[in-house]
Amino acid sequence: MLSQMQHEESRLMSFNEEELAQHHLDTQAKEIAEMKARTEPFEKRLAGVNITVLPKVYPGGIDSELMCSAIGDPTNKTVLDLCTGTGIVAVKMALSGANKVVAVDLNPEAVKNAKFNAKKLGLGQVDARVGSLFEPVDNMTFDIIAINPPYTAKKPADKTEICFWDEDNATIKRFFATYKKHLNPKGTAYLAWADFSSLELIEGLAKENNTTLKLVESRKSGSGLATFLVYRLIDTEMSM
Questions:
Q1: Is residue 219, in this structure, part of any structural domain at all?
Q2: Among 221, 179, 62, 101, which residue's Cα sits nearest to residue 92?
Q3: How many structural domains is the chain composed of?
Q4: Per the domain annotation, does 94 fall within a domain?
Q5: Which residues neighbour 40 within 8 Å (Cβ) at sequence distance 6 or greater?
Q6: Residue 96: which residues within 8 A CB-CB, separation 6 or more?
Q7: What is the pLDDT tens value at each position of the chain, 240 positions in all?
Q8: What is this structure's pTM?
Q9: Strands 142-147, 183-194: parallel, antiparallel or unpaired by DSSP?
Q10: Cβ(231)–Cβ(216) below 8 Å
């Protein structure tokens, strides 16, 4: 006899495209509700680092670990971590040898969380700032830029929901239009994405902004219904 889990997996695998999209939306809504209902912090281990997750902050998961793996060794480099959440990518980079890390998020609770984790781990080189994408860093440039943006084109009701939802995918559109201005010569940018969002969107944005997407990391979710991806962005104008 099939177990309850096997029955559920079989049901999910039979979804058509529309049903699958609704499943991902429902999953995100459930996780958002859990974030909003949480009143106490909890501990989580990601990318080999023990972090604290505060209420109303996305805990991170496969996407965060893939990003840390994709970047690799940041020794003596400057790093900008956009949509930082708990600050997991920022603190991992600092622990791995980056000499300066700026972590940015539009959710003030996420920035509070990133500051908490940096302080807990004794990482004075991490500077967490509230704001939208590059606004908090003015004209600063970096050796490495990492972004794990909201994937789903849906209007968020508040700043907790922006970890998953973004009206008209405005965040990733603005990122592609401006990221090169904040990269040092020979600097590298990394983008986290998922196959349940529009791959055509990021491919089109890359082409419009003279960028090639090179897939460097990918991993399926536990259900097997989603694959999380990390791309290295290559400036086609510089590589000519």
A1: yes
A2: 101
A3: 1
A4: yes
A5: 55
A6: 73, 74, 75
A7: 444 444 444 444 556 778 888 888 899 999 999 999 999 999 999 999 999 999 999 999 999 999 999 999 999 999 999 999 999 999 999 999 999 999 999 999 999 999 999 999 999 999 999 999 999 999 999 999 999 999 999 999 999 999 999 999 999 999 999 999 999 999 999 999 999 899 999 999 999 999 999 999 999 988 778 899 999 999 987 654
A8: 0.91
A9: parallel
A10: yes
DSSP for residue 121: T
Domain harbouring 11, CATH code: 3.40.50.150
Cα 206 from Cα 208, distance rounded (Å): 6
Q: How far apart are CA 110 and CA 129, in angstroms?
A: 10
- Tokens describing residue 141: 């440039």
Phi-psi region of 97 (alpha: psi -120 to 50; beta: other; left: phi over 0): left
Residue 240 lies in a domain: no
54: Cα separation from own chain's centroid = 17
Contact 193, 151 (CB under 8 A): yes
Instruction: Give the total residue count for the chain.
Output: 240
List Cα–Cα distances, 58 to 12, 73, 109, in angstroms: 24, 25, 10
Residue the block writes with tokens 């971590």: 81
Calpha distance 32→116 (Å, rounded): 21
The encoded tokens of residue 37 equal 């209902």
Burial label for 217, CB within 10 Å (0-12, 13-18, 19+), is buried
